[in-house]
Prior knowledge:
The structure holds 2 protein chains of 2 kinds.
Chain A: H1 2-39, H2 46-66, H3 77-106, H4 110-132, E1 145-147, H5 149-156, E2 164-165, H6 166-188, H7 190-200, H8 202-207, H9 212-237, H10 242-247, H11 249-259, H12 264-282, H13 286-292, H14 311-325
Antiparallel strand pairs in A: 1-2
Chain B: H1 2-23, H2 33-59, H3 67-82, H4 89-117, H5 122-152, H6 171-190, H7 195-215, H8 217-220, E1 226-227, H9 239-244, H10 246-254, H11 259-291, H12 293-303, H13 305-310, H14 315-341, E2 343-344, H15 351-365, H16 370-398, H17 407-414, H18 419-434
Antiparallel strand pairs in B: 1-2
Amino acid sequence: xxxxxxxxxxxxxxxxxxxxxxxxxxxxxxxxxxxxxxxxxxxxxxxxxxxxxxxxxxxxxxxxxxxxxxxxxxxxxxxxxxxxxxxxxxxxxxxxxxxxxxxxxxxxxxxxxxxxxxxxxxxxxxxxxxxxxxxxxxxxxxxxxxxxxxxxxxxxxxxxxxxxxxxxxxxxxxxxxxxxxxxxxxxxxxxxxxxxxxxxxxxxxxxxxxxxxxxxxxxxxxxxxxxxxxxxxxxxxxxxxxxxxxxxxxxxxxxxxxxxxxxxxxxxxxxxxxxxxxxxxxxxxxxxxxxxxxxxxxxxxxxxxxxxxxxxxxxxxxxxxxxxxxxxxxxxxxxx
Amino acid sequence: xxxxxxxxxxxxxxxxxxxxxxxxxxxxxxxxxxxxxxxxxxxxxxxxxxxxxxxxxxxxxxxxxxxxxxxxxxxxxxxxxxxxxxxxxxxxxxxxxxxxxxxxxxxxxxxxxxxxxxxxxxxxxxxxxxxxxxxxxxxxxxxxxxxxxxxxxxxxxxxxxxxxxxxxxxxxxxxxxxxxxxxxxxxxxxxxxxxxxxxxxxxxxxxxxxxxxxxxxxxxxxxxxxxxxxxxxxxxxxxxxxxxxxxxxxxxxxxxxxxxxxxxxxxxxxxxxxxxxxxxxxxxxxxxxxxxxxxxxxxxxxxxxxxxxxxxxxxxxxxxxxxxxxxxxxxxxxxxxxxxxxxxxxxxxxxxxxxxxxxxxxxxxxxxxxxxxxxxxxxxxxxxxxxxxxxxxxxxxxxxxxxxxxxxxxxxxxxxxxxxxxxxxxxxxxxxxxxxxxxxxxx
Lengths: 336, 443
């Protein structure tokens, strides 16, 4: 019984939140990795693209709420998400047209594109702040829990409860659908196949008549959809704040690199690796160990390896370790 | 002809901006010499940071976006050198902390040694893991009691180890050494990797340095901030002392200034002269380096690594060298900035302000040209501060026709504060697109 209780505490505080966070990171890392695979640069504006998509979604959510429209038990933001994706798509296509295309035509070095993306990051960040400000915004509504801790205790008769929030369940389901759609697209459709061909060997793809501008545009649209979805899910699960989204850049890049830049499967794996290790290392294990260890060994201290403020340090250390031992990432990624 | 006139014209334009800010209230200028000198002092410090970044990017093509971390380390040096030691802290737990840290470092060194010297295989993995995990718990067991003891000493006003109580000017080179040490560690691990991995690595380490400063209260009081860092006396006096000095009051009256204003201006000028001296020394050194065989070699490596390596140049070694040098310069600037502020507030270190803004300065000024980087720093920092008044001025013209208290007018006026990032991004993109070599291009 004690062992089961320990597992429940572990699931409640480490596993379930870690999975939800991992799914959000995975969606973000997919966007970064796709840009890297097709356009061949690290897009520093990705965090702010996520923030932009979320901003638009929040505005539409507010509009829907004031019109009295809701999505029943689910958050209204899900209804607003398609609009968010569409507007984000317009934004990234616009920036590509106005900014990136010039450097692509010139075949500029990747590092120049990274610096350019820094400029785009500034501007997107500025636009987000301009529209919605810098405040913390909570926009989740609908039913809060799929199962509450009290209900779980009642059902199982255990001492510890496992609460699963709607946003957590939703994150995992949405992420699964998005990833399934993406892989179906990449593997089964003609456009998807041409994208993969373009990523593997640009010259060969051009020779076989693939239109590069079309591939790039489709990539940006997919990235916009992934970014807006990831941002909205993260915002529903926690809250929306422009600066937090900028800071998400580090774990997202860590996830993409750990998985192997340019490899979509790796991005997903990397997202979960980074998220679960962040949560594991910064969680205070006292209660779990109290159940699992015999009474005389039960710890007095919190058994927290690192304080939660060091979560960046965790994703960073994993990143460095992977890079030192397997420079192309866990799954084989590209290296330039 | 045009090319030779370009630099003096640009310099006089920037100088004119600072003079206008001090002397007139037309357009968006404030007409306050205090404001002008305040901007100038931070611009001098930013110029030093830009020199450091230009060394790394302009000379060697290294993409470092962790400037904020090195600047913060310099700030830490200012606290550790100049603040008085906390009474009883060393006896209570200081040595525990030091031994703990030494053990932590020994653990990492032992793990690295194990990696190097043991044959590849399962044994090596097991030994390394055992060393790291065992070492970590041992390190925490020694460190934690020390930290608790130190942080328990009068937490409202100290709760940290304190510093050495030495003159704050000494902290400037020490800040450089701190940053150089961190750069050595990062360079050793990340310089062999691809260019954007170095970017991610530096971005990450900067966030970690800030996290350490925020959380390790025993070091520099964390988010409780350290205030009252002593000034570089006798060079920079305190305003109250100046106002109490009858001689100073009399000479201020001679210029027709009231003593309070005169004392603030005097202090700002004194800082400005100090910073100018440091900037000139570093600029001179950087110019010498650029024109030396070493500088030519660095640029040769930047332009073509493969052929430079084929010529027998140690590319990785040179990269490490210049990465450390550039970071050290940022550390010096960080210590100077904390000295100017008189306080260390880890919460105020923002990557947009201390990393990306410096990049905008270097690129706008002209990467690869030291004078360009310095000029870019003055211009961009002036713009960074003045965007708000300029934006407010513009918005009040745009919204002049609207009714007071209308929603759009309020929103537009409120959002002026967010125009900084937008403007900086726009400036960066425009320069990259239309004048990618910057205002004063590399020769």
